[in-house]
Specification:
Blueprint lengths: L9 E5 L3 H9 L4 E4 L15 H13 L3 E6 L5 H4 L2 H11 L3 E4 L2 H10 L4 E4 L8 H10 L3 E3 L6 H9 L6 E8 L11 H6 L18 E2 L7 E2 L15 E3 L4 H7 L3 E4 L6 H20 L8 H5 L8 E2 L21 E11 L2 E6 L3 E2 L3 E5 L6 E4 L3 E3 L4 E2 L1 E2 L5 E5 L9 E5 L8
Parallel strand pairs: 1-2, 1-11, 2-3, 3-4, 4-5, 5-6, 6-7, 7-11, 10-12
Antiparallel strand pairs: 7-10, 8-9, 13-14, 13-22, 14-21, 15-20, 16-17, 16-22, 18-19, 18-21
C-alpha cells in the first residue's frame, strides 16, 4: 500500500508498440506514453494505428493505467490540416492527456479535444517558473521540465507554481546533446528532421577533423586512432535518487525509450517500480542492491545522473555503442509439475545458469541441467529461434518471466 504521507509518484513508461505496452503494464507502470502514426517524436518504432490506439487505451484502462498520447513534433503547415481529426479521435477513445510542444498544437488541442489534459513536452524547453506559470495559465495540466535542469532548479520552479501544476521529469534513458532535444544535426547531415520525430542520431557517429588545405587527411580530436565520439552523451540513470526527486517536487518519473525493446521496457519499469515502492516503505532506507543492478542487464551507454546535481553528464568518447552484459535467452510459457516450458530467444546450453526476471520479485538464478525439445528428445542446446524447450526445474517460474544469461560468469557476482 502506498503511504499517504509521502508524495504520490507516477511511474511513466514508454510504449513504442503493443508488445512494449504489454511489458509496461505487466511490470508496474502507472502510466504509459505512446504515439499514433503521426505527430510523435519517434518514428523508429511502429507506434499505433488508429485501431491499435483504441485497443491500447482500453487495455491500459482495464488495469487503471493512464495513457498519454505524444503530439510533440513541430508540425509544418501541410501537416496541420490532419491534426484536428486526430485530436478529436484521441478524445473519443479516452486518451488521458496529450503531450504537446508547439503552442499552435496546444491551441488546436484545446479546440478539438477540450476534455483531454495537456502536458507540455520537454521540447518546449521549460527551465523557469515564469514559463511554467505562463503555460499553466494557457491551460497546461503538467510540464515536462528540460533535461538540463538541476534538482535545485526544479525545486525552485515547484515553489513558485500552483500546487496543481504537475511536474514530470526524465529519470532514465538516452540523453541528447542538444537543448531539450531541439537538434538540427540529423536534418543537416541525413535529411531527417529530429523535430518531426525522425532523428538518425548523428550525435552517436564517429568524427575526425579534416583541415581545409589537407583533403583526405584526418586528424583525431583526441588520441584514439578511431576518432572520437565528442557528441555521444552518457545515458541517464536516477534509480538511486528517488527521494531527492520527490523532495524537489517531481510528481512523474519518466523513462525514455519508445524506440527500445520490450525487454528494456520490462527491466526499467520493474526496477523503478521496485525503487518507488521501496521509497514508500522507508524514504531513508538504502535501496536494495538488486534494483540498480537490474539496469546493468539491459543494453546501455555508461550511466550518469545527467544535470540533476549540477554536473554535466559527460560523453562516452571511446565508442558509440552500448554496454551489453546480458542476453535474453528465453521467455517462460508454462510451469507444471516441476517442468518449465520455455520459448527460446537466443542460444543457451544445457547446464547454463540463467537469471530470471519475474514480476514483483527480485531476480533469481536457476540452472537447467537437462533440456528437452518439444518432442521430448534430450538436447544439449537450444539454438533455434522461438523453439520450445522443456527443462526440469525445482524453482517455479511464472508465465511471462524472462530468462537471461550473463555474457561472463562474473556478472552473477557483481
Amino acid at each position: 500500500m502506498k503511504a499517504t504521507q509521502h508524495p504520490v509518484l507516477e511511474l511513466l513508461s514508454p510504449a513504442g508498440d503493443m508488445e512494449r505496452l504489454d511489458s509496461a503494464l505487466q511490470f508496474g507502470a502507472d502510466a504509459v506514453y505512446l504515439a499514433g502514426q503521426e505527430f510523435g517524436m519517434r518514428t523508429a518504432p511502429s507506434n499505433f494505428t488508429m485501431d491499435k490506439l483504441r485497443e491500447a487505451v482500453e487495455k491500459a484502462h482495464r488495469q487503471n493505467v493512464r495513457v498519454y498520447l505524444t503530439c510533440n513534433t513541430l508540425p509544418r503547415n501541410e501537416e496541420l490540416s490532419r491534426l484536428p481529426e486526430f485530436l478529436q479521435y484521441a478524445q473519443q477513445i479516452g486518451i488521458d492527456a496529450l503531450i504537446v510542444a508547439d503552442l499552435g498544437v496546444m491551441k488546436l488541442a484545446q479546440q478539438n479535444a477540450p476534455r483531454v489534459d495537456l502536458h507540455m513536452s520537454t521540447q518546449t524547453g521549460i527551465v523557469n517558473y515564469a514559463s511554467a506559470n505562463a503555460l499553466y495559465e494557457l491551460g497546461a495540466k503538467r510540464i515536462v521540465v528540460a533535461r538540463e535542469l538541476s534538482l535545485e532548479e526544479i525545486s525552485g520552479i515547484r515553489a513558485k507554481v500552483p500546487s496543481d501544476l504537475e511536474i514530470e521529469a526524465f529519470v532514465h534513458g538516452a540523453m541528447c546533446v542538444s537543448f531539450s532535444g531541439r537538434c538540427l544535426l540529423s536534418a543537416y547531415l541525413n535529411n531527417r528532421d529530429a523535430n518531426r520525430g525522425d532523428c538518425s542520431q548523428p550525435c552517436r557517429w564517429e568524427y575526425s577533423l579534416v583541415e581545409k588545405n589537407r583533403p583526405g587527411e584526418q586528424f583525431d580530436i583526441n588520441e584514439d586512432s578511431k576518432g572520437t565520439y565528442i557528441l555521444n552523451s552518457r545515458d541517464m540513470c536516477m534509480i538511486d535518487h528517488i527521494p531527492e526527486l520527490a523532495e524537489a517536487g517531481v510528481t512523474s518519473l519518466k523513462i525514455e525509450g519508445r524506440a527500445k525493446s520490450a525487454y528494456y521496457v520490462a527491466v526499467t519499469t520493474h526496477a523503478y517500480r521496485a525503487a518507488i515502492d521501496a521509497y514508500y516503505e522507508d524514504p531513508k532506507a538504502p535501496l536494495p542492491k538488486w534494483i540498480p543492478e537490474e539496469l546493468h542487464k539491459i543494453s546501455h551507454r555508461e550511466y550518469s545522473t545527467g544535470f540533476y546535481f549540477g554536473n554535466e553528464p559527460g560523453q562516452v568518447l571511446e565508442n558509440g555503442g552500448y554496454v551489453r552484459e546480458y542476453d535474453v535467452v528465453a521467455v517462460c510459457e508454462d510451469y507444471q509439475d516441476g517442468v518449465v516450458t520455455l520459448s527460446q530467444r537466443n542460444k543457451f546450453l544445457r547446464g547454463d545458469t540463467l537469471d530470471v526476471l519475474e514480476v514483483g520479485k527480485p531476480p533469481y538464478l536457476v540452472t537447467l541441467d537437462t533440456l528437452y525439445d518439444a518432442d521430448g528428445q534430450a538436447i544439449d542446446s537450444a539454438p533455434h529461434a522461438t523453439m520450445i524447450v522443456k527443462a526440469p526445474c525445482k524453482q517455479p517460474i511464472a508465465k511471462g518471466a524472462v530468462l537471461r544469461k550473463a555474457r561472463t560468469p562474473e556478472q552473477y557476482n557483481r
